[in-house]
Write a structure and sequence with these properties.
The protein is an alpha+beta fold. The chain contains eight helices and 22 strands. The strands form five sheets. Strands 12, 13, 14, 15, 16, 17, 18 and 21 form an eight-stranded mixed beta sheet that branches. Strands 2, 3, 4, 5, 6 and 7 form a six-stranded mixed beta sheet that branches. The longest helix has 13 residues, at 153-165. 41% of the residues are buried. The mean pLDDT is 92.
Length: 353
């Protein structure tokens, strides 16, 4: 469904809303001496995910358990979620170790079927999730799915848009009623997928200003993992955030970024930068980069055109990527404007989802 009022109506006016991750569904069986992973169709996929086996073994604090979750490919340097296609590199018979290094994953857990002799299938969903929370030790690689309890369409819409901005397919809205038992496959109206019936395509690049940065990890330790990018609001003479970009940079780019941005470091957010996001490092708006993305979406987190399209949302670029082009020929005030991004959002090509 794509109508938040209809979804809440079918779920009794209140539900748990969870991120619907763009990954592979996994059912993990933890025994005393063994962990086995199954796909949605109950195909044994243990061989493809030795790292997930280790996560389940170490961080599920139960002797025996059956849990369900979504395995999502992540950028090893920024921790950002990657599209489902990237995860498919893990589905290979040979070179599993190499694939594991190149395409690490995060396991987001959302359900519990069995734990240490107690069957949870017939228990209501809130009880299953509460027990799951108690037995999972959350780390950078394994956690519970992001979720909130909602009872109004506005909050549901905001959460949905944040999920889209973060790289998810949409959200799952789950019943919290006493009859919200576990059901394999078709779940009637106990679980409802809230997704768009269309998506947009961003056909052109934009020139955005670097206003902040986030420390890298893994290979990017010691440099920046991602940059906070902003568009120029020429009416207010401020820079409004529109995305965090960590993809598209070469090793050479990453090496020179700290040096290039060093003269512009300041100890706090610049007075002309409007941001809800707290960066690790702030800059004077100066450096302009060319960025491409999958689409422009509404986001409650970014400030670009906030309130212009809808009262409680700004614009964000989904799956942004640096094209490799530094726009040293442009002053920050010559970057893509908020007005231009509004026009781009309105004229994006709709394609069926």
């Amino acid at each position: 469904l794509s109508d938040p009022k209809e979804i809440l109506g079918k779920l009794g006016g209140k539900c748990i809303a969870e991120y619907k991750y763009d990954g592979e569904r996994i059912q993990a069986h933890k025994g005393i001496n063994k962990v086995t992973l199954f796909s949605r169709r109950l195909e044994n996929i243990t061989h493809h995910y030795p790292d997930v086996v280790e996560m389940v073994r170490r961080y599920i604090k139960a002797k025996e358990a059956i849990v369900e979750g979504e395995c999502v490919a992540v950028n090893p340097d920024t921790g950002e979620m990657l599209p489902f296609q990237e995860l498919m590199h893990r589905r290979r018979k040979y070179g599993v170790e190499k694939a594991m290094e190149m395409y690490p994953v995060h396991l987001y857990l959302f359900d519990l079927l069995f734990c240490d002799g107690i069957e949870y299938i017939s228990k209501p969903y809130p009880e299953r999730r509460e027990k799951l929370k108690k037995i999972v030790e959350e780390t950078d690689d394994i956690s519970l799915s992001q979720a909130i309890i909602v009872d109004n369409p506005e909050d549901l819409t905001r959460f949905f848009e944040q999920a889209i901005t973060d790289g998810c397919e949409g959200i799952m809205c789950k019943s919290i009623a006493s009859d919200s038992i576990y059901q394999m496959g078709a779940r009637g109206w106990l679980w409802i997928k809230y997704k768009r019936d269309y998506r947009y395509e961003m056909s052109d690049t934009v020139d955005l200003v670097v206003v902040g940065a986030f420390h890298g990890r893994g290979k990017r330790a010691g440099t920046y993992g991602a940059l906070l990018m902003a568009a120029y609001n020429h009416e207010k003479d401020v820079f409004e955030t529109v995305c965090k970009v960590g993809s598209g940079f070469t090793d050479e780019d990453l090496e020179k970024l700290p040096e290039m941005l060093k003269p512009y470091i300041i100890p706090h957010r610049h007075a002309r930068v409007v941001s809800k996001i707290e960066a690790d490092v702030w800059f004077v708006p100066a450096i302009v980069l060319e960025i491409i993305g999958a689409e422009i979406t509404l986001s409650p987190l970014h400030t670009c055109a906030f309130g212009k399209i809808r009262e409680d949302a700004g614009l964000a670029i989904r799956f942004p990527r640096f094209t490799g082009r530094f726009r040293f020929d442009k002053e920050p005030e010559q970057a893509t404007t908020v007005k231009e991004l509004i026009e781009m959002y309105k004229t994006q090509r709709k394609t069926a989802s």
